[in-house]
Amino acid sequence: MNGVADFFGFFEQHSKGVLLFLLTVFFLIWMISWLVKILRPVRKANAYGSSMGSRERLGFVIARFFANIIDDFRHFLALTLVIIFTILIVYSMATAGTFEEKMKALQLVIASIGTLLGSIIGYYFGESAASKSQGQGTADLQRSEEGVPVENEMFRGVE
Question: Are 132 and 97 in contact (CB under 8 A)?
């Protein structure tokens, strides 16, 4: 009986504990349900799910989203760093007491990991821009070999 009193005494002393407990239970039930749906044997299963209707499910869409993001180790590493950055910011904001302490904690997290996160974002935008310009350069090269004048902003007016 004492264990039950201690259990409810915790919730009485910590009002946020009730919400945290309920969210944890809900998340665990949802996670177990999701794993059971994914791992159960299904007849007539195709490559993307048990039926065409399963493609529209939110869980399937989210799972395919993360599978497409993490198709390379670089993407997985970037996603891991973003998650760590987010967790550190939330933790530093939750544990700091005064506004000044929160600002110092936020500055520390952003200074240490924010620059790394910025370089990752720059890498992805740079890679995207390089692949687009490389494709454009190939098309320009093919048109110039065919004798078609190339319309390029850099060489506009030069013949």
Answer: no
d(CA 112, CA 84): 12
Q: Is residue 155 part of a domain?
A: no
The torsion region of residue 42 among left (phi > 0), alpha (psi -120 to 50) and beta comes to: beta
Give me the number of domains the chain comprises.
Answer: 2
Domain of residue 98 covers 70-137
Tokens encoding 107? 């500055």
Tens of each residue's pLDDT in the chain, 159 residues: 577 778 777 767 877 767 887 888 888 888 888 877 777 765 555 555 555 555 567 777 777 777 776 666 777 777 788 888 888 888 888 888 888 888 888 888 888 887 888 887 787 777 766 666 665 555 555 555 555 555 555 555 555
**The residue type at 120:** I
- E strands of the chain, at which residues? none
Dig out the tokens for 124 from the structure: 């992805």
